[in-house]
Amino acid sequence: MSSTPAAREETAPRTVRHPNWTIAATMLASSLAFIDGSVTNVALSAIGKDMRGGAAELPWVINAYLLPLSALLLIGGAAGDHYGRRRMLTFGTLLFAAASIGCALAPDLNVLLAARGIQGIGAAMLMPNSLGILGSSFEGEARGRAVGTWAAAGAIASAVGPPLGGWLVDTVGWRAIFYLNIPVAAAAIAIAWRYVDESGGGRDRLDWRGALLATAALGALTWALTLWSSHHAATRGSWIGLGTGIVLAVAFVLTERKLGERAMMPLSLFGSRPFVGLTVLTFLLYGALGGFIVLLPYLLIVGGGYTPVQAGFSLLPFSIVIGMASRLTGRLTEKVGPRWPLSIGPIVTGLGFALMVRADPQASYWTGIFPGMAVIALGMAGAVAPLTTAVLSSVDGRHTGTASGFNSAVARTGGLIATALAGAVLAEKGASLIQAFHVSAIVTAVLAVAAGLAAFATLEARKA
Questions:
Q1: Rounded distance, CA 37 to CA 41, Å?
Q2: How far out from the chain centre does Cα 281 lie?
Q3: Cα separation, 2 vs 13, whole angstroms
């Protein structure tokens, strides 16, 4: 998205004193969310047995984290733009670490869900501001390399998380997986405090009215969806939450329209067809991926008799491919533009999902699971870093945290919907579980291909 020359000059990124340490701090902080997500999926079955949680309760272990994360990402990014991105990154990381200890010590499911919710609040602060720091610290090809490195680190963290978490579940217990976050958080805070330059911190007043309306709207909508997923039916409470969320969302749009460029989320951003296209792509692609990442480990453990560590290793090819290719695709996007990587990558991902129709947890992993997994990983490797780079490049330096927060909120909302739909699959057993997984594979394939087509239709043919 274009801006005036004066605005670009005013918000041009400064020379970074410690570029490598800056990237390291953002990688470590954001890796907390990646590690936590991947590890929790592997431990879901063990948590259900220990806490006596059934098919109606298990999705809440994930949704209790996704609900505040989705609802607060936008205000987390805007707060970083206003109060300082390093400050918000550090506080969010500290809160996430404290909540992780609460998860590990939880005596029952209710306390665990409450601690997971606090984790979501911390992640809503650290995620958009980690990308906001990169967006305000680097530009051009340097930004592409930085974002590619950040994405690769996230993939590596996701790769290490499931096998290590599965081993801990098998040998120590599921509570140990949350202690993995403590040393990572400590390192992120120390490096950010010592080496990362502060950015953001605008003197304009924060749009509190818009922030509260956005948070309340997203919270009501995600609550309604979570309530629906736990009951597998639309209840009176879910309808009330949905109606309230829609009313609050309309109020938010009207408020932001009135404030113009002083708004937390300036509506002028949506006047750009590429920005809208990136939003649609993010929702569809990450919705499909979120459902797959939740369902596959559960299918292998419950339907195939895999141990948690074996299920963790089954996801390893996915993260390895993304980790190896993300830095390269990030640099490539700065040279050729985002249209082709973001069109081809999701379509290839969709083909991989389609291959999962052949998945049989009781047959050979190498013939039933691995081919689809490899194709999905190849497609996502072509989309993760280009998508992040394109979003950061679509706005000026003042709004990198806001844009990152909004895009992350869209991604998490897509994942939340997928988790709600996954609850119906988690309720199945035996042959019905396998059949339900195959249906979900077809749905995710359609969503991923649609994401690629949306990118092709809305993004420019070449970089401006």
A1: 7
A2: 13
A3: 16
Q: Are 416 and 294 spatial neighbours (Cβ–Cβ below 8 Å)?
A: no
Judge contact between 309 and 167, C-beta under 8 A. Answer: yes
**pLDDT tens digit sequence for 146-157:** 777 777 677 667
Q: Which two tokens stand for residue 134?
A: 């990169």
Q: To which residue do tokens 């951003």 refer?
A: 269
Following DSSP, what letter does each residue of 401-448 receive, concatenated? HHHHHHHHHHHHHHHHHHHHHHHHHHT--HHHHHHHHHHHHHHHHHHH
Beta carbons of 238 and 227 less than 8 angstroms apart = yes
DSSP class per residue in 372-406: HHHHHHHHHHTTHHHHHHHHHHTS-GGGHHHHHHH
Nearest to 166 by CA among 341, 348, 306, 21: 306
CB 396 within 8 A of CB 7: yes
Among the residues of 196-267, which ranges form H helices?
A: 208-231, 236-259
Q: Whole-angstrom Cα distance, residue 248 to residue 237?
A: 16
What is the CB neighbour count within 10 angstroms for residue 428? 17
Six-digit token string for 41: 């999926």
Give the integer Cα–Cα distance in Å for 114 and 433.
29
Query: pTM above the 0.70 mark?
Result: yes
Q: Computed from CA positions of residues 215, 218, 224, 228, in that sequence, does the dihedral angle turn out positive or negative?
A: negative
Tokens of 260: 């113009």
Tell me: the pLDDT tens digits for 45-81? 788 888 876 666 777 787 788 778 877 877 888 788 7
Q: Is 2 helix (H, G, I), strand (E, B) or coil?
A: coil
d(CA 275, CA 390): 9
Count of Cβ atoms closer than 10 Å to residue 233 Cβ: 9
Closest by CA position to 64, among listed 92, 89, 36: 36
8 Å CB contact between 192 and 90: yes
